[in-house]
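Summary of Year 1 activities. Much of the first year was spent building the evaluation harness for sequence design. The harness presents a backbone, in tokenized form, and records the residue chosen at every position. We chose the following record to illustrate the format because it has been used consistently in internal testing since the harness was completed.
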């Protein structure tokens, strides 16, 4: 099983289906489980950290016309440019993310705060040098999107956790950024999201992050190191 499959996919696996959005994994067999999302806003559909695959355009079209594409992590340029060119829209990148411009062959628009008319606002998170991302939060429905620092299905879960922080992130968990949010669902840039009692799952993950660091390091430190190294390549 490859960590990240760089070959052209021949299909995709749909995840996180709901009335206002859907996600997909273009390479379901890869270890990293890179997930993409389409979310409907007031101005159309926004594509978050997308990876291209046959049939994805039909999946997105069920939600409406594409209003924009967003890259929300230093390491998620992915296929944003291909989608932007195909739908004749710019790629939106948070002002504090600086590693993606030379990896996007399409018009780039910088933003802070609100992501167009999507209803989402971006929250800066830069726990370490070389690690910068933007959480997205839509208060009207309590949706949180976390590109890189957390996962559920593909994270190193400790004990009764349902959301795992990346092992190193446990040393600097985003409590200041996320603790006060009213969350109903959490979507991730890797693997499927959490929809049941998501607020409790997030609160538990943040509260126990540092305390569970030694267990997480033993259980998944080597695997997460391999994932990080593959992303850097």
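For this record, the design step produced the sequence shown next.
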């Amino acid at each position: 099983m490859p960590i990240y499959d760089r070959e052209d996919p021949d299909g995709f696996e749909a995840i996180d289906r709901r009335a206002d959005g859907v996600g997909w994994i273009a390479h379901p067999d890869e270890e990293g489980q890179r997930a993409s999302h389409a979310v409907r806003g007031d101005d159309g559909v926004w594509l978050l950290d997308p990876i291209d695959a046959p049939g994805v355009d039909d999946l997105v079209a069920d939600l409406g016309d594409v209003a924009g594409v967003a890259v929300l992590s230093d390491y998620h340029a992915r296929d944003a440019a291909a989608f932007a060119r195909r739908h004749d829209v710019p790629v939106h990148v948070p002002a504090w993310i600086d590693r993606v411009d030379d990896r996007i062959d399409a018009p780039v628009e910088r933003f802070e705060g609100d992501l167009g008319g999507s209803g989402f606002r971006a929250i800066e998170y830069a726990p370490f040098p070389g690690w910068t991302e933007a959480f997205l939060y839509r208060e009207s429905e309590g949706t949180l999107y976390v590109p890189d620092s957390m996962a559920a299905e593909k994270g190193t879960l400790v004990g009764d956790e349902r959301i795992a922080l990346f092992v190193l992130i446990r040393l600097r968990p985003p409590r200041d950024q996320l603790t006060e949010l009213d969350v109903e669902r959490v979507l991730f840039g890797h693997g499927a999201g959490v929809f049941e009692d998501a607020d409790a799952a997030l609160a538990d993950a943040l509260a126990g992050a540092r305390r569970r660091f030694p267990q997480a390091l033993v259980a998944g430190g080597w695997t997460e190191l391999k994932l990080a190294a593959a992303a850097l390549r």
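The longest helix spans residues 213-232. Quantitative recovery figures across the full test set are reported in Table 2.
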